[in-house]
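Here is one chain, start to finish.
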Amino acid sequence: MFFSLYLCNFFSSYNDVMRELDFFFDFLSPFSYLAWCNFKEKLPEWQNKQLVGKVSYYPIPMGMVFARHETKGPAQIDSKREFLLKQIIRYCRQRDIPFYGPKELPFNPLPVLRLATACNAKENQFALIDLLFRMAWATPESPALDDPQVLSQLIKAEGLPNSLMEGLSDRTTKKEVKENLEYALQNGVFGVPTFVLGEELFWGNDSIDYLELFLEDKDCLDRELFEAISKRTLVP
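Its structure:
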């Protein structure tokens, strides 16, 4: 009886570890915003079904990710920027997702990335992330998210503690953003949004459906085919 209970607790704890989900994002990324909209809608169901345990949120500067991989961001290629913007607008209108975009783009994301760190936001992290995404992308008159006074007013209006503003100048938050970046790169992150579950990486808003299938143990990946093709030399 005791041994059976031990095994039950062991596998329950093991499953919780395996179901820990990391979410890497940047408020400057419209696809991070779309992923957030879809993710926050699905999360309660995933948790109710015990498909996912702890979720950790990692704000990272996507520009630094591109720089470390020596790649261009989508906005740095004119035709790609135009195509993706059209795609986003079509996607949002089709699904009734509010989308207006910041008044100034790009904006400096570092202030809001620091505010949203776990060490600064603590138990308010989810609510603060949601607020900042809404203000950046879902508000017709998008406020200046790199203006401390504006941020303070937004936080107060949302009913969140003004102590969150301390994160703008705190060395700890600056350090955590850097640590988040290194952790992301260690996990193979090459862009945002990215979800990491164990050793599996799901990049982009359109990968959330695949993440959900993976959580439900219905992954449609043919691993034998993947292994066979991945060993070949791919010609650009």
